[in-house]
Amino acid sequence: MNEHQQTLWEFMQQQSDKLLTQTMEHIGLTFIALLLAIIVGLPLGIFIARKQKLSGIVLGIAGVLQTIPSIALLGFMIPVLGIGPKPAIAALLIYALLPVIRNTFTGITGVDATIKEAAQAMGMSKGQILARVELPLAMPVILAGIRTAAVINVGVATLASLIAAGGLGEFIFGGISLNNTNMILAGAIPAALLAIIFDFLLSLLQKLNAKKLKVAVQVLPVILILLSIVYLVPSAYGTKLKAGFTPEFMGRQDGDLGLKQKYGLKIHTLVISDAVMYKAAYQKELDVISGYSTDGRLKAYDLVVLNDNKAIFPPYYAAPIVREDALKKFPDLEKTLNMLSGYITDSVMTGLNYRTDYLHESPEKVAKDFLVAHHLYKEDQHGSGDIVRIGSKIFGEQYILGEMYSMLIKGYTDYRVSTKTGLGGTKICFDALTNNQIDLYPEYTGTGLLVMLQPKQKIIDSLSTDKDKTYQYVKAEFEKRYQLRWLKPIGFNNAYAIMMRKQQADDLNIKTISDLKRYLDSN
Amino acid sequence: MISVRQLSKHYGELKAVDNISFEVGEHENLILLGTSGCGKTTTLKMLNRLIEPTSGEIYVDGKNVKDQSPESLRRSIGYVLQNTGLFPHYTIAENIAVVPKLLKWDKSKIESRTNELIEKLRLPVDSLYKYPSQLSGGQQQRVGLARALIADPPVLLMDEPFGALDNITRTRVQAEFKALDELLRKTIIMVTHDVQEAFELGDRICLMDKGHIVQIGTPQELLFKPANDFVKQFLDAQRVQLEFKTVTIGNIWDRLPVGGLDNIATTLNENTSVWASLTAFDHQKQQQLTIKNADAIKTITYEQLMAAYHQYQQRPQV
């Protein structure tokens, strides 16, 4: 345990520059959004306290906005506001709005009617009643709303990293993808601390008496503005083209690190979620993205893969990995899973992915159509045997493969099947497997090699781009270390790839990653 | 001083106040009396435009209230509320200074006037820096009164000012209220549902029911010349006590035996109520009491007082 903590500390020291930048971005994002939420929410709350007929509608709308899943909300923002800070701030603003409006409304309507009448009877104007009586008396409740909003924002701001707006989410999501616990904690612990600290500071504010509160309320906006400015300090250098890479790609040897080392590529890079990256490239928000060579969106958004002329991306042949005890428990399983082997090539997989990712057909239908076309499909036997638990990561290709395996097992064996799809990134899926929560899921040889096994650079270099050697090495090591078995490769290679819009690549005459570097270096 | 003409307030079908008219003289103390929902509070609040009338006119000091902005009108009329309506986030000093600050008085003037009032109202000086919640109910009510009086408005409106106090505190605060010289110079309209309080404090009483004025007159007129059965029944429950309190030594002077000596220390004048005189026998443990009017002195016993009072009650009604 001691050693573990030390390595986390070491990681944080080593990455202290990044950690500081991310923390600042995180604070900045939180408070810009909070400030805007107060600017919008406070007058709106006062307004509906005056016109109570409208309160239902306004609070209703703010409440509905609050229930939109945060990642979906970020998605909605992209067509309107693009990627980067703007949509992130807009999304955070929307989440912060409800507590601010509701508490302003509750606070003001909660002021004793007798006191309001007294103020009126003393000859105060409406403005004077608001400023001298209603707002001061409602302030503890309003501050409670601001406090809630601040804590919500600290949490939701971690998602900002998915749309290239920075923040501590870069470490958190990078860590989840890379199976790097230290990296996750280096993002998660500061984020949690920020939430606790802001909550505590704002709770102090709430407890002040009327006199001190008056001063505090005047100082608060200044602090908020200062904290917001933190984010506006320019953080990245500009280049002719803008790149967007996933958090996972950013931290991998066969990713951004390799691009820098082997190609010497220098490009203005934003960290962005896989879910929005392709669309951002299509909409010209980004020019260069990391992606997967079999992704259906390649076809959908007319993107082209740049040739990896220095071979930094190892092969990523997909194959099911299965617990050895599951293979013993289900004797027919291996045979059944291997039925799929050899049927799916790169272009077939891209086509299947295109149907789910772009044509929005269900993975189940796509899987069934494919099996039927290749005469592999058999009706569900409605078996009564034990349950095989199939997992998958959270993207289309994995869902399709999961469905195919499920149909094959149901059709050819007596076992029953439960699918646990969408298990997030590699780490979550792999942990589920090793902890006996699932029996199998489709994995890629490159991921097995670089993320799980993490061998010495010499070994990686020796295996490098040879698909069979990589497969054999991974298979042997997994059996030894984890008691997991790699079954036969399915056939396609879903390697990492650098891609651009076809139009732009043609215009700039960029065909390989080296071409890209030459273009960026030229002036 | 105040003239109310054909005043009405309708809420849809409901006629909260229906075509009422009355006058209040300068330095007079008029009580609006009635059960809840009779329209007395609505009437009061229309005087300083907290409620705008449906129709009718109100003149204060000869000026139509509609011709003034509500804010400046209200700053010139004192207002005391049932639950004090003190601002909980203001200190006592700040609460008292609300109106002068709106009128932009300078600081020293506010301070000297505040000090004058807390002395008259017998509030402790250190209470000025406390918050309302740190004061007792009776003290809070005095602060509410000080807030209404500070700008020395000629007119004072009071909405059940003693309603939130317990019985003992109320009796004490009422007594202080009667004795306060500031109030003698005011034209006061007070709302209450408490018959005793109305008889205790009112020069005249305006008894209201269902938005109408049933009878307006002195306590004696209401008691002995009720306009109708409603007035009679309204007062019946407490009639005995009210009559004792309303009838004065002056009223029964002629029915008391002539003669007496000014040899007893306590002498009651003719304005003393019979109730107070009876209590005086009790308090002073005396067999005899000396009373006087402008011309003469009489020495009477408890029995003589009671006999005269009963004769007075049974006199033929005019």
Automatic annotation (TrEMBL), chain A:
Transmembrane segments: 27-49, 56-82, 88-115, 135-163, 183-205, 217-237
Entry superkingdom: Bacteria
Family listed: In the N-terminal section; belongs to the binding-protein-dependent transport system permease family.
Subcellular compartments: Cell membrane
Keyword Transmembrane part of the UniProt annotation: yes
Biological processes per GO annotation: glycine betaine transport
Domain ABC transmembrane type-1 as annotated: residue spans: 23-206
Gene Ontology CC annotations of this record: ATP-binding cassette (ABC) transporter complex
Cited InterPro entries: ABC_Gly_betaine_transp_sub-bd (IPR007210), ABC_transp_perm/SBD (IPR051204), MetI-like (IPR000515), MetI-like_sf (IPR035906)
Membrane topology, from the record: Multi-pass membrane protein
Matches recorded under Gene3D superfamilies: MetI-like (1.10.3720.10), Periplasmic binding protein-like II (3.40.190.10)
Signal peptide: none
PANTHER family: GLYCINE BETAINE/L-PROLINE TRANSPORT SYSTEM PERMEASE PROTEIN PROW, OSMOPROTECTANT IMPORT PERMEASE PROTEIN OSMW
Name of the protein: ABC transporter permease subunit
Matches recorded under SUPFAM superfamilies: MetI-like, Periplasmic binding protein-like II
GO molecular function annotations of the record: transmembrane transporter activity
UniProtKB keywords: Membrane, Transmembrane, Transmembrane helix, Transport
Keyword Transmembrane helix: yes
Classification lineage: Bacteria, Pseudomonadati, Bacteroidota, Sphingobacteriia, Sphingobacteriales
TrEMBL record, chain B:
Occurrences of domain ABC transporter (ranges): 2-235
Keyword list, A-Z: ATP-binding, Nucleotide-binding, Transport
Residues in coiled coil: none
Molecular function GO labels: ATP binding; ATP hydrolysis activity
One Gene Ontology term from the biological process aspect of the record: quaternary ammonium group transport
PROSITE patterns: ABC_TRANSPORTER_1 (PS00211), ABC_TRANSPORTER_2 (PS50893)
Pfam family, one: ABC_tran
Stated family: Belongs to the ABC transporter superfamily.
PANTHER family: OSMOPROTECTANT IMPORT ATP-BINDING PROTEIN OSMV
Protein name stated in the entry: ATP-binding cassette domain-containing protein
Organism ancestry: Bacteria, Pseudomonadati, Bacteroidota, Sphingobacteriia, Sphingobacteriales
